[in-house]
Amino acid sequence: MKILLLGGGGFIGRPLRQRLERDGHQVSSPSRRQLDLRQPRADWRQWLEGVDTVVNAAGQLLDRPAGALEAVHHLGPLQLASMAYQADVRRWVQLSALGADPQAATPFLAGKGRGDAALLASGLEARIARPSLIYGPQGASSRLLLQLARLPLWLLPDGGNQRIQPLALDDAVEGLARLALADDAPEGVIEFVGAEALTLADYLRQLRRLQGLNAPAYILNLPPQASRTLAALAERWPSSLISRDTLEMLNHGSCGDPSALGALLQRAPLASSQFREAP
Fold this sequence. Notes:
Elements: E1 2-6, H1 13-22, E2 26-28, E3 53-56, H2 68-86, E4 91-95, H3 107-120, E5 125-131, E6 134-135, H4 140-150, E7 153-157, E8 163-164, E9 167-168, H5 169-181, E10 188-192, E11 198-199, H6 200-210, E12 218-222, H7 224-234, H8 244-252, H9 259-265
Parallel strand pairs: 1-2, 1-3, 3-4, 4-5, 5-10, 6-9, 7-12
Antiparallel strand pairs: 8-11
């Protein structure tokens, strides 16, 4: 197959490209400079010539500059999908996010939700993966949590009682590859989650043990107002993963049903207790 992969240099896109090319598929992966979803251009059509499937693994977490999330997650993909439909591209695989909803409280999930809805109405064979937190030591969020897990004291909003369902990077990559390649893979939305849900605090305990630290850490419960204040301060740093929006998403929880992903993988996805790789 000939595949156009957006975000091919990212945490998920890079191993996905390697997986697709290993099976002999022709993958083109323009850089952001070559195809920037924030700046629609007519010459995007050149990337769609002869393409069978578009896989969109591009995205960003924070709305910087203002309006970027709506452009990257909704308006840009909608424009490219319209061109893809006109170019007779058959299939579009979208990396979205668990909780994506046009009416979501955060710009990230709302933009993802609007983008998903637009793709489902585009006329393309749309397959939308909505992952929970993805674990891979090279991922920015995983590195942050691994660093936090090593500390003797954890300052956690609500004591770390938020529910999450982490997914192994290898399972995410294999699931996306099958959505891109398999004719019998399901269309529509599929939840990409690990085999079991747990609290953030319990996940940190697993990551702590994964790094060979068996002594327990102490948890300091941050009340809501203190959590929001610290998040507001943290988001002033340009590269920060912590913001009021990410705090809102954490408090909302990120859990789903692993059965559809299990059917796609033809095995159960890993549970976080089965993660073995750490720096």
